[in-house]
Design brief:
This protein has 21 helices and two strands. Helices cover 57% and strands 1% of the residues. The chain is globular.
Length: 455
């Protein structure tokens, strides 16, 4: 298997961008156009619909969020999580537009009319690249190349490709899922607008940079990444390393995800009986100051008529999310100048007022100790390590030994859409990871059992 050639970065001859503008940030350009001009949907509504109706989105209904699937208790999977993030993201965007219009005039309302659709579309897609078994799936793939049999391949790949494997990132895989032209599919992948794709990118740089724990771009998608960011005229911070500023709307998508995963995971833990009602009640109530009497009055009235504990927690969860949406939008407004100039580089949620931030930190600390490390969660992670690790090793060995009979039979199981005519090692390994990362939890377990003769 031959090595691929190093990536060549194309020079950007455009003048340096000092401040980003909404007219270019909301670019409706896409790689492949295929619609009637009479369509009642605009470009961003088409993005939303394409994601909703895609197979890769539907498959998330059988991918773990935190707790095992299936189960007698209805808890979140990746699909329901993404739908809820999209709902919260839309609310943040609309609240920001309202507040910007109050500050800068109604012209801002018309200029930013579509941002709620763009943000909610990016929120729908933000977890599309996650492999089976939640974040443990990412960790398993990384560990296979970092600590397992795959580490012997390091000398066969350049650093800028090896870093994609030893720190496999679902965020980068999501961008690949949406933009890569898989075999038999159309140019540009799902062919979303540049605005939606740029909003999806939380970490606008490739994997091989030092001191970067997360990233959004595999080596194979660098050209597409550059085309999207330049198409939106997003400020380039370091052309040599291909580091860009973030699209302003990506902060809203990130905030929606941060709010949902923490608050809703706590609600799921309550449904599973891991955390008692009184404790969750206290955590959620702590988001409200003593002088916010409207909340305590409303809570008292509702609790007199609602006796179901799950319904009470649902009320508290919704009220907390509404408050955080308002607080996050205030942070965006206060940091608006720095965001538009590409100088803001932290999550919005990290700039919450001290009171709300303290309440959130208490929830986060409790979740880390009592939810994410709970035996139920750890067991599903260990299952992922065995299943995903075993499948990755099976198919990587088949790539390395293509002439063996077993390898030929095994590789024939990979659908044609994931295969490539490229014969370099990096591309062949991507075929394997594309296939496995697209599996649902149940499909991965069944294939693992089938290959080992386990009934």
């Amino acid at each position: 298997i031959r090595l691929s050639r190093p990536h060549t970065i194309r020079k950007n001859n455009k003048s340096k961008i000092t401040k980003m503008e909404w007219t270019s940030l909301l670019s409706a350009e896409r790689e492949f156009r295929e619609y009637k001009k009479s369509d009642i949907r605009n470009a961003f509504q088409r993005d939303y619909d394409r994601i909703i109706f895609s197979n890769v989105f539907r498959r998330m209904q059988n991918k773990t969020q935190v707790f095992p699937l299936p189960g007698s208790k209805m808890v979140h999977n990746r699909l329901t999580h993404s739908l809820e993030v999209a709902s919260v993201g839309r609310s943040i965007a609309r609240t920001v537009v309202k507040k910007l219009s109050e500050r800068y005039g109604n012209d801002m309302m018309s200029e930013l009319y579509d941002i709620d659709t763009i943000v909610s579309a990016a929120c729908l897609a933000h977890d599309l690249g996650n492999p089976p078994f939640g974040h443990s799936g990412e960790e398993t793939i990384s560990c296979y190349f970092k600590e397992g049999p795959g580490k012997d391949l390091q000398d066969l790949l350049p650093d800028y490709q090896w870093s994609d494997l030893v720190s496999f990132e679902g965020n980068a895989n999501a961008f690949r899922q949406l933009t890569h032209q898989f075999a038999g599919r159309r140019q540009g992948g799902m062919s979303l607008t540049y605005a939606t794709l740029a909003t999806l990118i939380k970490y606008p740089y490739p994997s091989h940079l030092p001191n970067k724990k997360k990233y959004n771009i595999f080596h194979s998608e660098l050209d597409t990444f550059k085309k999207v960011m330049d198409g939106c005229k997003i400020k380039c911070l370091d052309e040599k390393s291909m580091i860009y500023a973030r699209h302003p709307l990506s902060y809203m998508m990130e905030a929606a995800d941060d709010i949902c995963y923490l608050i809703l995971d706590m609600e799921d833990a309550h449904k599973r009986g891991i955390v008692e009602t009184e404790k969750i009640d206290n955590f959620f109530t702590s988001f409200f100051r003593n002088d916010e009497t409207w909340f305590f009055e409303r809570k008292e009235i509702l609790y007199k008529t609602i006796t179901d504990n799950n319904e009470r927690i649902a009320f508290l969860r919704a009220t907390v999310i509404n408050k955080l949406v308002d607080c996050i939008s205030d942070v965006f407004i206060s940091e608006y100048k720095a965001i538009m100039e590409g100088d803001f580089n932290k999550a919005l949620i990290s700039h919450l007022p001290d009171f709300e931030n303290n309440a959130l930190e208490k929830c986060r600390d409790f979740s880390l100790k009592n939810i994410y490390r709970h035996p139920v969660v750890v067991k599903i992670e260990l299952t992922g390590f065995n299943v995903i690790g075993g499948l990755v090793d099976d198919f990587v060995q088949a790539v390395l030994n293509p002439n063996k009979t077993y390898s030929k039979k095994l590789m024939s199981l990979i659908p044609e859409q994931f295969k490539t005519e490229k014969d370099d090692l990096y591309s062949q390994l991507q075929v394997v990871l594309d296939y496995i990362s697209n599996m649902t939890d149940l499909y991965a377990v069944q294939l693992y059992k089938d290959l080992r003769g386990i009934e």
